[in-house]
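Researcher: Here's my situation. A collaborator sent me these components and asked whether they could plausibly form a single complex. I don't have experimental data yet, so a predicted model of the whole assembly would be a useful starting point for our discussion.
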Amino acid sequence: DAGITQSPRYKITETGRQVTLMCHQTWSHSYMFWYRQDLGHGLRLIYYSAAADITDKGEVPDGYVVSRSKTENFPLTLESATRSQTSVYFCASSDLLGTGNSGTEAFFGQGTRLTVV
Amino acid sequence: DQQVKQNSPSLSVQEGRISILNCDYTNSMFDYFLWYKKYPAEGPTFLISISSIKDKNEDGRFTVFLNKSAKHLSLHIVPSQPGDSAVYFCAAGRQGNLIFGKGTKLSVKP
């Protein structure tokens, strides 16, 4: 199916564990993003990637690691999960952002609800 | 410091009336701005966007206005419908760095 998919949809993990959230898109979009959504904070950008092997920090990158070895995948890893990382995580992809045109929208996945206990 | 601010956490409007959602930003280097709509347990969905070189963009019932001197944008929904009830996020971007506001919860009452 075409689109952007996140897995798993729900995850419970223990403090200190490593956990990886997966994101896969089928459009060959150059840009991919990871956001977290928390009450009172809206959507905060964790990391983004302009192309394979190019990643940049967003607003809240601490405690997270990303990689982009292939254009279609953008996994997010919490190397040692903490309770403050309990959140809903959204992956998004887009093509040719920042061209000065009307702006190509970013398409979002359904989200991963992560609980760290 | 927040680069994109939505100062109204909620807004209630009567069906058929205009809904106006506001957004302020601090970084004059943003190239483009977007509005998203979000229902519970779903990812945000794109509504409308505007380039920094324009001051208005219209798509059906949705119009976005950009005032660069004031660093302010707004989304107008006319007429509002109960199905428009959702959380609305504004976002601003430059070269892939796409920053969102905290969102405004719109309730459209029949």
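Model: Some features of this prediction you could bring to your collaborator: The radius of gyration of chain B is 13 Å. Chain B has a mean pLDDT of 94.
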